[in-house]
Structures are given as structure tokens and as C-alpha cells.
Design a protein that fits this description.
Layout lengths: L5 E8 L5 E4 L7 E3 L12 E9 L6 E10 L4 E8 L3 E6 L8 E4 L10 E9 L7 E11 L5 H9 L8 H8 L14 E2 L6 E4 L8 E7 L5 E8 L10 H9 L3 E3 L2 E3 L4 H7 L7 E11 L5 E12 L2 E4 H9 L3 H6 L4 H21 L9 E5 L5 E6 L4 H23 L6 E3 L5 H14 L12 H11 L5 H11 L4 E3 L23 H15 L6 H41 L6 E10 L2 E6 L4 E5 L8 E4 L4 E4 L5 E3 L3 E10 L4 E6 L4
Parallel strand pairs: 3-5, 8-10, 11-18, 12-19
Antiparallel strand pairs: 1-2, 1-4, 2-3, 4-5, 6-7, 6-9, 7-8, 9-10, 13-14, 14-17, 15-16, 17-18, 20-21, 22-23, 24-25, 24-30, 25-26, 27-28, 28-29, 30-31
């Protein structure tokens, strides 16, 4: 029988040896010191006993009594061979144990090979875990092995089951002409896709007109994937299990097979394709006056890239301007409307965090040869604003119909976290205004506007992002704080996200029944909405983590031949064990206290600063600092810097 002060939760390990246990319906996590981990591994479900409230940061401390359920049965790592035995060093740095492999259990594995090891004995006090090597991925230096290791680590489904091949044989490469009569024919309209040069799964296209009265007619045409992925099919079951496509530089682990994602579902130029379309009339202030959802058929006029649309609008390339001369007015109209829509969002409190993503370039061998900021152009802005508007309109329309639906929810941030952030912002002269223990998007947006163009913009934006809650999928609408929208969903990417595909199916059912859906069908979809919102949120977390791990590997790989080089960066965060510095190319590394210089630095937790004991120098977040690269290791995914101090 469980004692009263014992609680069940999920263990989250830290690579430093300690960890935390997250309890359902409890905001703060329970701190677990290394001596109280009791053989638990990251992700395990554990029973804990609370025994102390830590005075330093007011968090609760506990000890793990028992592991209830193991999260991992298999681990990915690097095999190290000795004369009479071997061991595997896990890729997951949060697993603080090597796995012992006896000679009879490592088979043909060789030194420095990436392997999949099955854990046969979990760690106990003083003893490492033990295991059997089940699969050899390849030598850790061989091209592609690093990405395959991430795929294996997160159990990403990189192959489709054979049953799907049979279903794909019954799907034609061209549209079914018999179905056209039930659709609105947009094939004579000028319709464009705007994507990255390398994109193959094109699931959104746009059309635009400007009326004599100054209003815009915007068409957002989305691939009608639900026309091909039917309920009850193996394709649908696999899409549910995958939840999302995962993008890892030189490879994509798609939610749908390429015959669909790059073929009949992809809105390729010059071919007829089925869509689910929303046509909106929008006034000169950005207000949507009316909208109509319909099944459509389109034939994309031109496939455009972000690069060429930007060149057209900036009038920076004569050849590109000449090639697309007849469509220039269309792109100028798109730009005009996108700016109007964005301004309306900003006035509503839209959080324009302006955090650049990384653009990592690989060579033919899959090795990182360049890392820089991804340039967000006016063309990116056009697509973002048009897709946001379509998503909002679809969400509001079907919310008002009380339809079973999946919404994209982003809740109001926890007020205590906002107050904690304000302590830091106060030192910089900023403050997020709160009222009656709540905060509005406008209050956060005001600070974001104030920091624009300042040295601390990137750092403050990052801290605000960390203060916000994670967006997720829900069957109940609860608004989207970051977009400052009362209604929001994901409608525009059904090729790569299951919630989009699911709501397409619901919308199609409403359209085919003239909005008179049978109550039994409604109940069925409501049950599915709850289930798929939860599973899609979980799959999204896994995909995001895997993509981030892949990025960390490639950033470290890129920096491996930069040891000794000197850069100027910005202090992005300060912790009890060192500071993190971000370079202009988005790469971040850590400076440990011993590499900060000759002075001894004291950590001021409340102000998140370091103070030199002798020099009284203050190091703070947002400060520029000169560093030298002293370590870059793709296998540990670690980049370390030393401070360059002027003598």
C-alpha cells in the first residue's frame, strides 16, 4: 500500500546527474539529488517520497522510492570494446550510465560503431546497466550514421509497412474526373505556390484579386489529402501513428508516402489537383468581411520560390522581373495585403518574437559546411499572414457550428513566471504590465516593440519565449495567446500534420451534408478529436526534440574545425555552472567558470548576473563578449568556449 506522502510522476534527468519529477496537475517539479535517483533513467515513471522543501529556491525535494515503469528498453549509443567485454556510451546525455556488454552479447560490433542496445539489467547503486547489442547502425564517422542514430533514438518510423504499398496501387496519379462536378472549378484562376526551392510537398496555394472598392479577395487553396487518405485505411492509421513529418536536413521522414506527399496531393505546377479552399473578402483594414469554404479543383499557374518573389518585390533582379513580368501586379497585391494583415495583428497583440532560425548547409557527404541565420523575406511574410488568416477563419467558422474539431491552443502564461521575468526586465528598464493576476498579448507585444533594434532584443525575445507556455492541440478551443487570436487551428498543412488532415475530414463531412451532420457521426468525430489532439501533441514533441538533436549534432560538426578561432557573441543565459554565449550565426556554446578569466565570479541568482569577486565586473544577459572556441564534439553534441580577456 502506497504511503500518503508518496507520489507517482515522470522522471526528467539532467546530464549533470540530478533530475526532476513532473507530477500531473502540479505546476512545480520535484527536485531529485543524484544520491536519491535510485537507478532511474530519463523518462521513467517513478514513485517518489517528498522529504524536504529547499530553502534556496523554494522548490520541493524528494527521493525516488521505486521505478514503476521503464521508459526505454533500447538505447542508442557508441560501442567501446575492451579485451574481455565492452560497453555502450548512450547518445542521450541524460542517461547517466554506460551500459556493460559481455563478450557473448556484443556479436560483431566494432569499436566506435553506433549500435542499438537492449537493456537487460537496469542500473542499481554502484552497478551500471547491462545489455545486449541488437543492431549495428554503422561506424560513427560514416556519412548519414549520425542522423540514423537520431532516427533510432526517437524510434521514428522511417519505413512504411507493406500493407500501405497495396493501398497505394489503388490511388491514381491523376485526379478522378468524375469528382470534378462536385467541386468549384478554379482552374482558370491565376494561382501560385510560394515555397523554398527544395520543397517537394506543396500543400498550399494562393490566389488574389483587388476589387474596385479597395477590398481584397484572397483564396487559400489547400491540398485535399482527405480525398485520398480514407478513414479505416492503413494509410490513415500510419498517419495517426506518425502524427507529423520530421525534417532532418538531407532527409524527411514523411507522414505520408511520397506517392501522395510529392505526387497526387502536392499542388504541382500545371497539373489538376483537388483542394479544400477558403475564399475570403478582406477590407483595407485587414478585417475579413466574408468567407466561403468549398471543395475545389485548381491548376497552379506558377510554382514560385521565396527567393524569386522577394527579388520581384525588391526589383533586384532584371532577369527574374522579365520572366514573371505578367504576374508582378499579383505579387505586389499580395505584399500590400500581407502588410495590412500583419499590422492588424500587431495592433491586436500578435507576438512578433523575431527569433531567427538556423540554416544549415550540408555537402554531398552530409557534413555541415555552413551555418547561418535563415533569412525571413517579405515572401515568407506573405505566406505566413495568409495561412494565419485562413487558419483563424476556419477555426472560428467551425467553432460557431459546434463541430467536433482540433484547435491549436496557446494558453495565457503563468503569472508567477511573468513576474519572475519582470524582475530581470526591470534591470533593463522594461516591464510586462499585468492586471488582476493575468497578462494580455498586448502587454507582452509592447515590450517586444520597445526592444526592437536594441542589443538585448534577441535575449529578451528568447526569455519571453521561455516564459510562454507550449502550444498544443486540443479538442476544446481556448484561444492562441501568441497570435492574439480567439480562434485558431492548423488547417493549411494536411500533407505533413495529422490535425490538419483530421479537420479536413470533418469539414468535408459538413460540406457534403450541407452542414447537417448526423449526431452519431458528430459524436464519433468528437471522440476522435480528443484522442488525436493528444497523440498529435505527443508526436509533435518527439519530432521537435529529434529535429533539435539533429541540429545540435550538425552545429557541433560544423564547429569541429573552428577550434581556436575567435568570435564575438552575446551572453544568452547565465547559470550556476557557467554562461551560454550565442554567436551571430545562431550557434551557442558554454563558457564554464574556469574559462571566464582570472577572476572568481559569484552567481547572483535573482538578477541572473555574475559578479567578479576582485574586479567587481558584472556579466549580464545580453552583453557582448569575445570568445575562443575550445571544444566542439558532434558525438557529445557539445560546444565550449573560453572568454578572450584583453590584457
Amino acid at each position: 500500500m502506497k504511503k500518503k506522502n508518496q507520489i507517482i510522476g515522470k522522471f526528467r534527468a539532467n546530464e549533470k546527474g540530478f533530475g526532476f519529477v513532473a507530477i500531473e496537475n502540479r505546476e512545480d517539479e520535484i527536485f531529485i539529488a543524484p544520491k536519491h535517483i535510485n537507478g532511474s533513467l530519463n523518462g521513467d515513471t517513478v514513485s517518489i517520497e517528498i522529504f524536504n522543501r529547499r530553502a534556496t529556491d523554494k522548490s520541493t525535494e524528494g527521493r525516488i522510492i521505486k521505478v514503476i515503469k521503464r521508459d526505454k528498453k533500447e538505447v542508442i549509443g557508441t560501442f567501446q570494446k575492451n579485451k574481455s567485454f565492452g560497453f555502450v556510451v548512450p547518445d542521450d546525455r541524460k542517461i547517466n550510465t554506460d551500459i556493460f556488454i559481455s563478450k557473448k552479447h556484443y556479436g560483431k560490433a566494432k569499436n566506435n560503431q553506433k549500435v542499438v542496445v537492449e537493456i537487460t539489467k537496469y542500473p542499481t547503486k554502484g552497478k551500471n546497466a547491462e545489455g545486449i547489442i541488437r543492431e549495428i547502425i554503422g561506424n560513427r564517422d560514416k556519412a548519414g550514421v549520425d542522423m540514423m542514430s537520431v532516427i533510432k533514438e526517437y524510434d521514428l518510423p522511417y519505413e512504411f509497412p507493406k500493407q500501405i504499398d497495396e493501398e497505394l496501387k489503388n490511388i491514381k496519379d491523376t485526379i478522378d474526373e468524375d469528382d470534378i462536378k462536385n467541386r468549384v472549378d478554379f482552374r482558370n484562376d491565376e494561382i501560385f505556390t510560394i515555397d523554398g526551392e527544395d520543397a517537394k510537398d506543396l500543400d498550399d496555394a494562393i490566389s488574389i484579386e483587388k476589387k474596385d472598392n479597395g477590398n481584397f479577395v484572397l483564396g487559400v487553396h489547400i491540398a485535399d489529402v482527405s480525398n485520398y487518405v480514407k478513414e479505416g485505411s492503413f494509410l490513415n492509421r500510419e498517419a495517426i501513428d506518425r502524427g507529423t513529418s520530421v525534417y532532418m536536413f538531407d532527409r524527411v521522414i514523411p507522414m505520408l508516402p511520397t506517392k501522395l506527399s510529392n505526387g497526387i496531393c502536392s499542388l504541382n505546377q500545371g497539373v489538376d489537383r483537388f483542394t479544400l479552399s477558403i475564399i475570403m473578402e478582406i477590407n483595407s483594414k485587414g478585417k475579413v468581411l466574408s468567407s466561403k469554404v468549398c471543395k475545389g479543383v485548381i491548376n497552379v499557374t506558377r510554382r514560385m520560390s521565396y527567393t524569386n518573389v522577394t527579388k520581384i518585390l525588391e526589383k533586384s533582379d532584371k532577369e527574374v522581373l522579365k520572366e514573371y513580368k505578367q504576374y508582378i501586379n499579383k505579387f505586389e497585391t499580395m505584399e500590400e495585403l500581407a502588410k495590412i494583415l500583419k499590422q492588424r495583428r500587431i495592433e491586436a497583440g500578435y507576438l512578433d518574437l523575431n527569433l531567427p532560425e538556423s540554416k544549415i548547409t550540408l555537402n554531398d557527404e552530409g557534413i555541415a559546411i555552413d551555418v547561418k541565420k535563415y533569412d525571413v523575406t517579405i515572401a515568407n511574410e506573405i505566406i505566413e499572414q495568409f495561412m494565419l488568416t485562413a487558419n483563424e477563419q476556419i477555426a472560428e467558422k467551425f467553432y460557431n457550428l459546434h463541430a467536433p474539431f482540433i484547435y491549436r491552443v496557446h494558453e495565457i502564461p503563468d503569472i508567477d513566471k511573468v513576474k519572475e521575468l519582470n524582475k530581470f526586465l526591470h534591470n533593463l528598464g522594461y516591464k510586462i504590465r499585468t492586471s488582476k493576476d493575468t497578462v494580455t498579448p498586448k502587454a507582452v507585444a509592447k515590450v517586444l516593440d520597445e526592444i526592437k533594434g536594441t542589443e538585448e532584443e534577441r535575449v529578451v525575445s528568447n526569455l519571453i519565449l521561455r516564459t510562454l507556455k507550449l502550444a498544443r492541440y486540443e479538442s476544446e478551443n481556448d484561444g492562441h495567446f501568441g497570435i492574439a487570436s480567439k480562434y485558431y487551428c492548423h488547417f493549411t498543412s494536411p500533407i505533413r500534420r495529422y490535425p490538419d488532415l483530421f479537420i479536413h475530414r470533418v469539414i468535408s463531412k459538413y460540406l457534403s451534408s450541407n452542414y447537417n451532420v448526423d449526431e452519431k457521426i458528430r459524436e464519433k468525430y468528437l471522440v476522435q478529436a480528443v484522442k488525436y489532439a493528444k497523440s498529435s501533441s505527443e508526436r509533435e514533441k518527439i519530432a521537435t526534440t529529434a529535429e533539435r538533436e539533429a541540429e545540435d549534432i550538425k552545429k557541433a560538426e560544423y564547429m569541429q574545425d573552428k577550434i581556436g578561432e575567435i568570435y564575438t557573441g552575446v551572453i544568452s543565459s547565465i547559470t550556476q555552472f557557467g554562461i551560454f554565449v550565442e554567436l551571430d550565426n545562431t550557434i551557442e556554446g558554454m563558457i564554464r567558470f574556469e574559462n571566464l578569466g582570472k577572476d572568481y565570479y559569484i552567481y547572483d541568482e535573482e538578477n541572473k548576473t555574475l559578479i567578479g569577486e576582485h574586479t567587481k565586473e558584472i556579466l549580464k544577459i545580453g552583453q557582448k563578449i569575445k570568445i575562443q572556441v575550445i571544444e566542439a564534439n558532434k558525438y557529445t553534441r557539445r560546444i565550449s568556449f573560453a572568454r578572450v580577456v584583453q590584457e
